Description:
single chain, three-stranded antiparallel sheet, 2 helices, 41% helix, FP_C, (apollo) hypothetical protein
Amino acid sequence: MKILEDKLDKFDQNILETTTKSFLASELSNITVSFATLNDTVDGLRSDNLTSEHLTLKNKHLFRECRNRAKSHDYKFVWVKRGVILTRKTENSPVLAIRLEQDLNKIK
Length: 108
């Protein structure tokens, strides 16, 4: 009887391990995260990865306009952090927050 119980315990354990592994593999395959490599520093912290953020349609247009204006004024960095568009001319210059169309006038 003891041998039969041991075999059933091993069988149950194998089923549990197999089910857990397949469940985890299935769940992990559904996770998608976009990463982009950066070679710059932001606020003194090295940032190797950047997760993509979702922006409202208004902020997408504002971000595009900010990138275009920053490019024409030789700004080096434009990025989004927690839904706020940020820009910086050089590594040592102050960070400008762009929240409204009027804030684009800060880029000179």
